[in-house]
Amino acid sequence: MAEPGRGGPGRGGPVRSRRNRLAAAVTTLVLLAPLAACGSGDDGGIPTVNLYYTTEQNIQKVVDDCNAKASGRYRIAYRVLPRAADDQRVQLVRRLAAEDPGMDVLGLDVTWTQEFASAGWVLEWTGERRAEVERGTLAGPLETARYEGRLYAAPKNTNVQLLWYRSDLVPQPPQTWDEMIRMAQDLRGRGQPYRVITMGAQYEGLVVLYNTLVASAGGRILSDDGSKAVFDEGAVRALEVLRNFATAGVTTSSFSNTIEDQARLDFQSGAGAFQLNWPFVYPAMQEADPELAKKVKWARFPGVDAGTPSKVTIGGFNLAVSRYSKHPEESFAAASCLRDAEHQKFSAINDGVPPTIESVYAEPEMAEAYPMRDTILEELKDPATRPRSPAYQNISTVLSATLSPPSAIDPEKTADRMREATQDALDSKGVLP
Amino acid sequence: MRTETETETGTAAERSGRTGAVPAPRRGRTGRAGRAPLSEGKRAERRLGWLLCAPAALVMVAVTAYPILYSVWLSLQRFDLKFPDEREFVGLANYVTVLTNDYWWTAFGVTMLITVVTVAVELVLGMGLAVVMHRTIVGRGLVRTSALIPYGIVTVVAAFSWRYAWTPGTGYLATLFGEGAPLTERASALAIIMLAEIWKTTPFMALLLMAGLALVPEDLLKAASMDGATAWQRFTRVMLPVMKPAILVALLFRTLDAFRVFDNIFVLTAGANETSSVSMLAYNNLMRGLNLGIGSTMSVLIFLTVAVIAFVFVKLFGTAAPGSTDEGGRR
């Protein structure tokens, strides 16, 4: 701004003209602003649906296909969210808290759906739209999209970990953790590769492992209505299994620091007889070491008790419609298109993300891309979901902090600590580290 | 530099007040108890002073007082964006939660450690750099510019280069102290954070101290050396006392800044392995946890701590501190 009162008579002219120009510029901007807003929202009358989704290599093709099929009803614009889960969530959350109307369809990790629903940030799916999503969708993934009995998202893809084992060392895959640990100790005694490789660092992956163990042992972390931290006998039993595994001398030395890709590399280096990991490890192994890949087979994740099959934690992404969207109708239609059977098959084959619609697994093209599809489907039909609570982020943070390092677990005491910290998180009293 | 300006303004006002009061003290019109009655001119001057301050004061209220009060109000509630229906007034419960929490005290300790170590090291290095910059005769501009480069780089950008430098595989510093990832262990990670902070803000310290050095009269130094004072004695007995106000301003600014350290930690470790500062903790609870109640409580506590630090500085160093109105302010 020009300095007031300083200009002498000689300087009055230029100052005023400068001010006038400034005023003119501001007026022009003010007049143009609504036009600009219209321009970004409606492209020649076609509503733009902004899709906020994480990086997925070929999703633009799915978007293009949906745009072609919409024949002018809407046009989806793909906005790329960051790679890291935390960064994705922070961006979505900050903009939703500010009631940003620029986001329409949101790609939510399965563990965020309840949080966004509880905060009132995403719209409920009702009527015919809901029926369409529920038709043919596997029960486990569908459950991750529900909150308090209502449907708040459409499952786009799911994911589940398998047991990968060296068939040249282990003729029959183990059914339980105890059996797997014994097999590994035998192999070590015979001087063969023996390690059991999986994720044990202090992060979400450790919570996924623990959640699988709790569900496989028939335990519960939260009460059914999600308001109480339970951590029953099964949860304590799961802690025992985890501690026994971490102290049996069959893990890698860096177990408490291992995340997905590290586990994959450790196994590819030939040190392991078993690996518990997501399906992405298989194509990666075929590329990096085809000889090793030929010896590797897969099986259902080991259970806790003999005779009771495991229940494995599912991951994946759901699509939800923002409450602040200016075009909710079109957004629901766009989300439905992005996750329909045809596009799920395309994404499964081209981007390696397992479908949530059961019939897609039977498609002939799936056999080549997913040789392990039957095992995946078997696990998906009897899955474990992570605690479906709006406070899941906080619960996960305190769980991974309490579980790490797994070798230091003292089952009863650790369960007590987790119960207390989880209850605090549910009551908004928890402090995040 | 606002504080310095304030001091000067205060001094000028006092002076003019005194001169204004002498010629025409009007009887019967007393000001507040114990104060000399105000003259017409003096009152008009005050009124003008208030009017001139008003726009700035209003802006300050809008951009600082309102958010501060709003934070205090939030900190007294259970207010969690995840549970919008369960918003309620809880009094001081959030303060009890935070002040009895281990994470908070760990972060507080880390922050204090970083503050004390970095400010102390920066003071020493900054003083050395200031003397060099002050005394350089050849290429003075070049020396000053190159010394200021770290301060000119955006902290986040600098922090990323430090991070890559210390990451095994991408960095040239990672293997300096044997195998391992220095950013994944607490002690080494904290050392790296402090190093990045010191590297970044020593030039700022030097700049402030150089302003103080310019205040030291050359004659005084010559006279001292004539009296047989050694270089060290000239530094401690002549330069330091004259520079005291400048040193205090520099220390105060840097301490308050250092206590709010955030960006370096955010980039270098993201607070892993107990390297969170209090600001990181507040961010995590506000932005990641969506817990406005607990997060605001932390913000208020940080604000109070900063206020206490400023108060201690003013009290401890008494007269020479910026903002104090007695003798020292008139130097």
From TrEMBL, chain B:
It is a multi-pass membrane protein. InterPro entries: MetI-like, MetI-like_sf, Sugar_ABC_transporter. Belongs to the binding-protein-dependent transport system permease family. Residues 8-25 have a biased composition (Low complexity). Residues 1-39 are annotated as: Disordered. Its main location: membrane. This is Sugar ABC transporter permease. Keywords: Membrane, Transmembrane, Transmembrane helix, Transport. It comes from Plantactinospora endophytica.
